[in-house]
Amino acid sequence: MGNLNVKLHHLLDQFSTDEKRILLVGASLYIHYALAAVVVLWIIIAMLREKRLLTIIKQVPRSRFALVFCIITTIVAALYENWIGVACGIGLLLVFLYIFYYRTVITKPCFELLLDICIVCSMFFVVWGCIEYYLICQRLDHSVFELFIANSPKNRVHVGSFNANYYAMIIEFTVLLCFYKALQWKSVKHTLWYGFAVIANLFMLVLTGCRTAWVPFVVSVPLLILFCGMYKLFALSLVSIGGVGGFVLMNPELMKRAAYITKDFAKRERIWTTAIQGIKAHPLFGEGPMTYLQIYPLYNGHPTNHSHSIYLDPILSHGIIPVLIVAVYFFSNLKEAVKLFTQKIDVPLFGLIVGFLVTVLLHGMLDYTVYWIQTGILFLMVMSASSMYFQDGYNKGKRKI
């Protein structure tokens, strides 16, 4: 333990205070959502005390569009007395401020260590999840060996993520991080470690009972392998995914909660119908974050927190105009990320970003799990990682908002 402590201190001494803060955020995402919120707030308070916040905002391209989006959506929520939405609007503002900070200080060594910290800390969730699963089985009088998965989210493994489906998306992201690191091929030992982390996290994905979370892997993993330039492995991945998919289809009993698919899809249809009615009522500005929670009684909708669709909920909650405003910021961020590929700066990182985007867009067809502090921040940190290659532009004042 003494040697490990010395090595850890030696490793961290190579990083600045700003980079250490980012590493702390990464670790907190895999401990508890409340801790992640506290750490992000602490960093923003530190920026205020250091009188750096305004400078950071000015350094990030199109940042003012994200800030205007947060201000509008919070005001709209207040006008409709949507107090949960007001809290979410303030939360969105804090997350964006942290991401601006992240974009101005992230470096390649820090980013690579950040991913390793996330993967290591995911093992904490694995241990916690196994204990939680045992307690669930005890409470519902099931044997742990029958791999029982309840249909109710509250009776499925969710560890420090509030909801089983949120944890499922964290696992999706973590598996992609493992593949990204393994494909760098540093040594057999490292590759075996990342392989073990993939298997452990996929086992936890089974325990979450989230069926939608498996779908993005069909596209995201092969794409990541392809962008890493491993064409034979890419072909092998397609064959493997096809074989496993065919086997599961021929043996549907292997798919947990398969019996509830028709019933649950009917719920989704009811939710989406309600969301569309809400969009028609207030198409331009919505009623603020978590609008669905406000309106479902008005339309006899299914009771839930959001519209379970990344394609409906942003428009329902924020309206067309604010969505277009924040899209300007994200489009600028995406253009920066595309340069990693077009200019051959860091194609594997671009592959990781594409993998994250595919995961959100495919999973988002049936759920809105990226709209959460842990999943949202992890997604934005990977999406914004391209900024590490453009910081000279920041420092020289070449990039403007």
From TrEMBL:
<keyword id="KW-0472">Membrane</keyword>
<feature type="transmembrane region" description="Helical">
    <location>
        <begin position="192"/>
        <end position="217"/>
    </location>
</feature>
<protein>
    <submittedName>
        <fullName>O-antigen ligase family protein</fullName>
    </submittedName>
</protein>
<feature type="transmembrane region" description="Helical">
    <location>
        <begin position="83"/>
        <end position="101"/>
    </location>
</feature>
<feature type="transmembrane region" description="Helical">
    <location>
        <begin position="346"/>
        <end position="365"/>
    </location>
</feature>
<dbReference type="InterPro" id="IPR007016">
    <property type="entry name" value="O-antigen_ligase-rel_domated"/>
</dbReference>
<feature type="transmembrane region" description="Helical">
    <location>
        <begin position="113"/>
        <end position="136"/>
    </location>
</feature>
<feature type="transmembrane region" description="Helical">
    <location>
        <begin position="60"/>
        <end position="77"/>
    </location>
</feature>
<dbReference type="GO" id="GO:0016020">
    <property type="term" value="C:membrane"/>
</dbReference>
<feature type="transmembrane region" description="Helical">
    <location>
        <begin position="22"/>
        <end position="48"/>
    </location>
</feature>
<dbReference type="GO" id="GO:0016874">
    <property type="term" value="F:ligase activity"/>
</dbReference>
<feature type="transmembrane region" description="Helical">
    <location>
        <begin position="315"/>
        <end position="334"/>
    </location>
</feature>
<keyword id="KW-0436">Ligase</keyword>
<keyword id="KW-0812">Transmembrane</keyword>
<feature type="transmembrane region" description="Helical">
    <location>
        <begin position="164"/>
        <end position="180"/>
    </location>
</feature>
<feature type="transmembrane region" description="Helical">
    <location>
        <begin position="271"/>
        <end position="295"/>
    </location>
</feature>
<dbReference type="InterPro" id="IPR051533">
    <property type="entry name" value="WaaL-like"/>
</dbReference>
<feature type="transmembrane region" description="Helical">
    <location>
        <begin position="371"/>
        <end position="390"/>
    </location>
</feature>
<dbReference type="Pfam" id="PF04932">
    <property type="entry name" value="Wzy_C"/>
</dbReference>
<keyword id="KW-1133">Transmembrane helix</keyword>
<feature type="transmembrane region" description="Helical">
    <location>
        <begin position="223"/>
        <end position="250"/>
    </location>
</feature>
<feature type="domain" description="O-antigen ligase-related">
    <location>
        <begin position="196"/>
        <end position="324"/>
    </location>
</feature>
